């Protein structure tokens, strides 16, 4: 993952990004460039468990051949989305551009009072700025969704809300969603989880996002502007 300022990364613009040929469960797929998967979410808290869950899911996407980038932490400290103004700050522009360039997205939120956090919802509100795009909102993109809460109830209700939002944004929620109970599972700094099954599921969500992108492209439905 390429990194810039805290919490802000961009998709790599290297040779790796071009003319890839790889094998997935969909068979041999020759792509003009790697599938791009954007990770979005987490909390502002140092050592955010939800951000760590996101990193694991992104590594699953990378294992499936995707290049990834993430908008997390301070990069999500955006003004409340205002549909009445057209000017956007630097962070908002980067976020919207990262969504625009993506072939698939993984969104992770902590459960706050049984719902997704305001920080993550506000970031998702900025997807409204893609309404006039050739691929409006999350059109044609798989959306991996992961909720991390200190109990099952909020983990599940938050995941359900995120699915509803992904549908509203015209995205395709992956078959597997992540409901993580942070009272039972801990994510470490090194990118691991205390429970192997959780780690496996998060990686699988990332893989499903990348593979949907490959399938879309194989069917001729990829981003026409990205070749
Ligand atoms: C404002 C706030 C509200 C929360 N509400 C809930 C809740 O309703 N149910 C729950 O299980 N956990 C709740 N939690 C706990 C978080 O979901 C949990 O600690 C999560 O792992 C935090 O993610 P983070 O480490 O990425 O910040 C809340 C935490 C905060 C700060």
UniProtKB/TrEMBL annotation:
Domain of life: Bacteria
A GO term for molecular function: FMN binding
Domain NADPH-dependent FMN reductase-like: 36-175
InterPro entries: Flavoprotein-like_sf, FMN_Rdtase-like_dom, NAD(P)H-dep_reductase
GO cellular component: cytosol
PANTHER family according to UniProt: CHROMATE REDUCTASE, NAD(P)H-DEPENDENT FMN REDUCTASE LOT6
The protein's name in its UniProt record: Putative flavoprotein
UniProt source species: Saccharomonospora cyanea NA-134
């Amino acid at each position: 993952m390429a990194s810039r300022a805290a919490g802000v990364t961009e998709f790599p613009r290297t040779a790796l990004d071009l003319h890839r040929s790889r094998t997935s469960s969909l068979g041999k797929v020759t792509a003009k460039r790697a599938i791009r998967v954007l990770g979005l979410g987490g909390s502002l808290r140092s050592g955010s468990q939800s951000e760590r869950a996101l990193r694991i899911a992104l590594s699953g996407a990378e294992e499936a051949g995707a290049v990834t980038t993430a908008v997390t932490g301070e990069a999500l400290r955006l003004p409340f989305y205002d549909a009445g103004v057209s000017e956007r700050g630097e962070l908002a522009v980067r976020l919207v551009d990262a969504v625009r360039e993506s072939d698939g997205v993984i969104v992770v939120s902590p459960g706050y009072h049984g719902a997704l956090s305001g920080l993550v919802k506000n970031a998702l509100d900025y997807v409204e700025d893609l309404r006039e795009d050739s691929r409006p909102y999350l059109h044609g993109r798989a959306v991996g969704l992961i909720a991390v809460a200190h109990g099952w109830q909020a983990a599940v209700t938050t995941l359900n809300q995120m699915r509803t939002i992904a549908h509203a944004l015209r995205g395709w929620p992956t078959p597997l969603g992540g409901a993580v109970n942070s009272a039972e599972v801990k994510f470490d700094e090194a990118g691991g989880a205390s429970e192997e099954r959780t780690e496996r599921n998060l990686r699988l969500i990332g893989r499903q996002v990348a593979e949907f992108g490959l399938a879309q492209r194989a069917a001729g439905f990829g981003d026409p502007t990205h070749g």
